[in-house]
Every structure is written in C-alpha cells, then in structure tokens.
Specification:
The chain has 153 residues and is mainly α. The chain has 2 domains: 1-49, no CATH class; 52-147, no CATH class. Helices cover 45% and strands 0% of the residues. Helix 3 crosses helix 6 (125-139).
C-alpha cells in the first residue's frame, strides 16, 4: 500500500506493541528519508491498534489484511463485490508487499512472517488458497450480473 500497512501481531510482554511500532515506523521513516533525500511523514496518520477479543474478528483479519492491496485494482471489494475474481486473485498473487504469497507457499518474506499458527488454522497453504479463492469468488459481481436489475445488463 502506498501510505499504510496492516499487521497481525501478538505481544510477548506488556507494552511491546507500542514500543515495536515506534521503532519500526521511526526507523523506517529515517531510512527512507535519508535514502531518498526527503523529510516528513511516510504513513497516513498515526498507528492504530485494535485488540482482537472475539473469534469472529480474528477469523476476518487474515482476509482483510490480504485483500487490502485490492484497493489498488479493485476497490469495490470493500463493498463486498468484485468485478473480476480472476484478475483480483492474479493481482494478489503478484503483489510483492504482502505476506499473502508466503501463506500460499511462496517464499516472499519468510524470515519476517510467522505463518505457522494461521496455516495450522487454515489447514495448510492449499486450504488457505482455496479459502481465499472462495472468498474472492463470493464477491465477484460479474457472476451474478444476469440476476440483477442493473441498467447495464
């Protein structure tokens, strides 16, 4: 994403997430600004965190995090519809700046992400892939266009 990112993290000690986020954001901003000879903020707004307390929220997060880059090519996903599921899936599989590819079994950022917990939950990379494919397919608008009363039929 051009101006923000999402992570699912679990702290090992109290106050770990705010300290980690401060180091990550400040360190990366300093590196980026020095490399590109610029000044100022890189990310949109301050970092926010949400405590995951319900199973339903936890189950939704991997999809939300991995679908977020679709804002670039298919922002309608946020309204629970996608014009072309194959195009959306192909984009997600090519999008380098996501752990989605690691969850599919490709080595994209294997040393940065810990996938075991979620992959165990999904039943492995292939089951994860099937789940993502099904989730995208249920959002595909073209597959139900003939059943709607839209003017462009």
């Amino acid at each position: 994403m051009p101006n923000h990112y999402h992570m699912l993290v679990s702290p090992l000690v109290d106050d770990a997430i705010p300290r980690f986020m401060k180091k990550l954001n400040m360190g990366y901003a300093k590196y980026f600004n020095e490399k590109y000879k610029r000044v100022g903020a890189l990310f949109q707004g301050r970092y926010r965190s949400v405590l995951v307390e319900r199973d339903a929220h936890f189950l939704h997060l991997p999809y939300y995090i991995h679908f977020n880059p679709l804002d670039i090519v298919a922002p309608e996903w946020r309204h629970r519809q996608i014009q072309n599921a194959k195009k959306a899936l192909a984009f997600l599989e090519r999008y380098r700046w996501s752990s989605h590819r690691d969850f599919l079994g490709e080595k994209n950022f294997p040393s940065i992400t810990q996938r075991d917990f979620l992959l165990d939950f999904f039943g492995g990379s292939e089951t994860y892939r099937a789940s993502i494919n099904e989730a995208i397919a249920t959002l595909e608008y073209d597959s139900i266009r003939s059943l709607t009363f839209d003017d462009d039929n």
